[in-house]
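Subgroup meeting minutes
Present: P.N., E.W., G.H.
Scribe: E.W.

1. P.N. recapped why we're keeping a running log of single-chain structure predictions: easier to compare across weeks, and new members can see raw inputs and outputs side by side.
2. G.H. added today's entry (111 aa).
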Amino acid sequence: VQLVESGGGLVQPGGALRLSCAASVFTISTRMMMWFRQAPGKEREFVARVSAGGNTYYAPSVEGRFTISRDNVKETLYLQMNSLKPEDTAVYYCKAWPDYWGQGTQVTVSS
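Output recorded in log:
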């Protein structure tokens, strides 16, 4: 089981990034998939999730700015992040139910 995130980087406040999480060895189409993030000195926190049926749920801090989606053919999970703020700076992790994690990708929002 392998999850590999990509798409992180440095962006100015108000900018956008799209994160990807590519799965190998297993299929994501039947699993709940999630994004978490961990800022320096803070606990890892939930960001968004998408069920196998496509239902989505977001943390209040990102609702309306972030969009989670999945491509079951490509076995890839996405997180479109718009209107980024400095407080969005963190390492972002994808997670597949029940407890499979990627290695994380750094997102830095700074001018």
